[in-house]
Amino acid sequence: MKKKIFSGVQPTGNLHLGNYLGAIKNFVELNNNDENKCIFCVVDLHAITVNQNPKKLKKNIYETVATFIASGIDPKKSIIFNQSQVSAHSEAAWILSCTARMGWLNRMTQFKEKAGKDKEKASIGLYSYPVLMAADILLYDSTHVPVGDDQKQHLELCRDIAQKFNNDFKVDEFKIPEPLIQKEFSRIMSLKDGLKKMSKSELSDLSRINLTDEKDQIINKIKKAKTDPLPMPSNIEELNKRPEAKNLISIFSSLSGLTLDKSIKEFSGKNFSKFKESLAQVLVDKITPISFEIQKLLKDTYYIDEILSEGCKKADDIASKKIKKIHEIVGF
Ligand code: ATP
Ligand code: MG
After folding, report:
1. Is 200 a catalytic residue?
2. Angle, vertex CA 144, rays to CA 43 and CA 4, nearest 5
3. CA–CA gap between residue 154 and residue 134 (Å, rounded)
4. What is the Cα 242 distance to its own chain's centre?
5. For residue 107, how many C-alpha atoms fall within 13 Å in the half-sphere facing its CB?
6. What percent of the chain lies above the pLDDT cut of 90?
């Protein structure tokens, strides 16, 4: 079956190893298969659910596109665009917010985490964000959505919204999309806390490896990464009880293409410092060429503007047809 792929990344700066291993690496593989139709969206409307500096936002939009291309996405083979430029997204989000139920949104864990203790002060956009995400996906009849594990709940919500809309209006308009979440290494954790996911919005830069980091920064961050006082674990059961060790070994396995078992065997009983040297080396080998390419692309924002403007035209063509159909179904 031909797959219609859709996924988004927020232009909130600091694109990191979690974004790469959980999402972008998968985008590249899907994009390399000529059978697939891929759309990759810079979700700038999602970014403004928390305060953004307008100048920085613009720069981050460029940086996100540059990261897609530097990681290996071919802009000739897929549509790359930014969400705010295709007005159907906002419109569909409104219509779908009349389908989505408060009870469903109240269960979303990302809102609880991001809003923190003072929910009353969170923006309404942060709360209704998953409905906009559903609109993004459903406008393009997407069949598959490659995301990191943290987005699984939002994707389930998207499926519920699509199903309820179809049932309410007795139509078959929305395809029910499947998540594409990698079986292993789908949630990379913070370098400072093995129980928290690595995030762009985390204040400490030492908590993540940015895709723009240089060699010395990577080595330094791995040296400072939190570990426990024991030697390296010798089996999976032991590893599962030690979140920081598990995260670091998972990163090593994912980047070096080894199974978790093999990586554990290789370092079993050794000191963390020895392992960290090997980990820093595979990270430097993988990240620095991407970082170099991002910097190079960012010197030519004209090229990035061209990609976005081309992508927006193509996306708008698909989405504006879909929103017309939605209007008819709703009765406008
Ligand atoms: P923010 O903190 O601003 O939400 P983020 O780091 O979560 O930023 P997003 O732009 O929200 O990044 O997510 C882009 C993609 O990266 C999504 O598919 C998401 O599931 C994936 N992703 C984000 N963080 C991780 C992580 N730590 N491990 C694996 N995948 C991740
Ligand atoms: Mg996120």
Report:
1. yes
2. 85
3. 8
4. 25
5. 9
6. 97
Give the separation between CA 28 and CA 77, rounded to whole angstroms: 11
Residue 45 to residues 61, 85, 307: CA-CA distances in angstroms?
Answer: 11, 10, 19
pLDDT tens-place string over residues 248-268: 999 999 999 999 999 999 999
Distance separating alpha carbons of residues 186 and 21, to the nearest angstrom: 7
Give pLDDT, residue 140: 98
Closest CA to 144 of 255, 47, 29: 29
The b/e string for 151-164 (b: 16+ C-beta within 10 A; e otherwise) is: beebbebbbbbbeb
> What is the distance in A from the centroid of ligand 1 to the CA of 130?
14
Residue pair 198/16 in contact (Cβ under 8 Å)? The answer is yes
Catalytic site includes residue 274: no
| Residue in 5, 16, 19 to alter for ligand 1 test, most ligand atoms within 8 A of Cβ | 19
Tell me the H-state helices in the chain.
Answer: 17-19, 25-32, 44-47, 54-71, 88-97, 102-106, 109-115, 124-138, 152-169, 215-224, 236-240, 243-256, 260-267, 272-298, 301-330
114: annotated active-site residue: yes
pLDDT in tens, 302-327: 999 999 999 999 999 999 999 999 99
How confident is the model at residue 320, as a pLDDT? Answer: 98
Query: pLDDT tens for residues 170-180?
Result: 999 999 999 99
Task: Supply the DSSP string of 48-77, one letter for each residue.
Answer: TTS---HHHHHHHHHHHHHHHHHHT--TTT
Closest CA relative to residue 147, chosen from 307, 40, 35, 230: 40
Give the whole-angstrom CA distance, residue 132 versus residue 93.
5
- Active-site annotation holder among 25, 37, 197, 322: 197
**What's the predicted TM-score (pTM) here?**
0.96
Using a 6 Å cutoff on CB, does residue 200 contact ligand 1?
yes
